[in-house]
Amino acid sequence: METKILVVDDELSMREFLGILLEREGYSVDLAETAEAAFPLLSSNNYDLVISDVKMPGLGGLALLERVKEESPETAVIMVTAFSTAEQAVEAMKLGAYDYIAKPFNVDEIKIIVRNALDRRSLKRENLRLQEEVKGRYSFSGLIGKSKKMRDVYSLIEKVAGSTANILIYGESGTGKELAAKAIHYNSPRQAKPFVAVNCGAIPETLMESELFGHQKGAFTGAVSDRPGLFEQAEGGTLFLDEIGEVPLMLQAKLLRVIQEREFRRVGGTESMKADIRLVAATNRDLEEQVREGSFREDLFYRLNVVAVKMPSLRERPDDIPILVEHFLKKYAGQECGAEQIAPGALKLLLAYPFPGNVRELENLVERCVVLGNRRIEEDCFPPQVFNCCGVVPRGEGIEIPPDGMNLEAYLDGIEKQLLQQALERCGGVKKRAAELLGLSFRSIRYRLAKFGMDDE
Length: 457
Description:
Layout: E1 4-8, H1 12-24, E2 28-32, H2 35-44, E3 49-53, H3 61-71, E4 76-81, H4 86-94, E5 99-102, H5 107-138, H6 148-160, E6 167-170, H7 177-186, E7 195-199, H8 205-213, H9 230-233, E8 238-242, H10 249-261, E9 263-264, E10 273-274, E11 278-283, H11 287-293, H12 298-304, E12 307-310, H13 321-331, E13 341-342, H14 344-352, H15 358-371, E14 376-377, H16 384-390, H17 408-426, H18 431-437, H19 442-451
Parallel strand pairs: 1-2, 1-3, 3-4, 4-5, 6-11, 6-12, 7-8, 8-11, 13-14
Antiparallel strand pairs: 9-10
């Protein structure tokens, strides 16, 4: 994309000189003799740089500078004058000018100043783009869904993001716990600082202390140099400890001390280091049960569980499945011959499927169908477990146990949920009539609907 520059000067010779100089440098240049003549050009063009004289008939260069900064804050402005004063320079810089130079000026000097101004403008532009990308990705768009359960999650994140409280995120595998942690971080005052995530279950117990707190050279065999840990890497930002229930008891005591004292020591070190971090932890385990069993410290649990965020399973928010499918179709739309829509029968099948792997499993299913090359997701592109768990027999096939086994409870739940949905549809949502159709009591159907999160239908 070409770089556009506007030169504003009441001296014809100066306008033409700057126009020729800048065009030879490869820039697209427009010329104006007054601020008033420049205003229409500013309204109809997106300039990267404006070079303006200070003293001109009419409004003058400072008024033009103010107008440019009001309409396009990213545009760089260089002020030029033959009558330079310190007061004018200070005023111009206060109003947002990139630089202030006096006539006559050296040709090489103006080239360097122009190049530096444009480089700085590009850098600011890129920073803004990255900030918007981060906001778009992690504000709430990473968490997809409009169901009441997801709206409750968004509301809670908005309330707690600005605080310094420790947060514990609960949820099954694949429900988006790390996305929730990122949403908390990027909506907090720490958003410009690092977000550091670690899966505690993926680190060998013997290395976990060194990973978290770092180590000094010679602290143990193989420690050939000083190494900062994750607490140091997250300085000023957020440290996300996923699968916190996997942390061994010995290390839980040290973690508790860091939370209480806000300081730690590297392995093999003697100097205490400050821990200015926001701690967010997550688990797919029942930590309260672990506390009762003695495998998780009660005092650490209460330190972490200041605010609890519960990520709902996909089974609890089936209304979000169509939205998620659309999102993942767009995500993988660039793949060759990829699917662009989903057939009603295929969507109905997904709505009945219990999704033990939650949103992550749904994404994998959509990606699989896209990769298979069909223009539309049909029922026959799903793997056998989707049919088996939903009690649906695919064309030409019988119900069979997949090679890697199946979840019988989920299979039966899938059949039950599908029949409940069919009964409600046939009876127009009237639960009493649906209960009669299925040979159930009204109390029994209410219990079954509540089990699948369908009680508000």
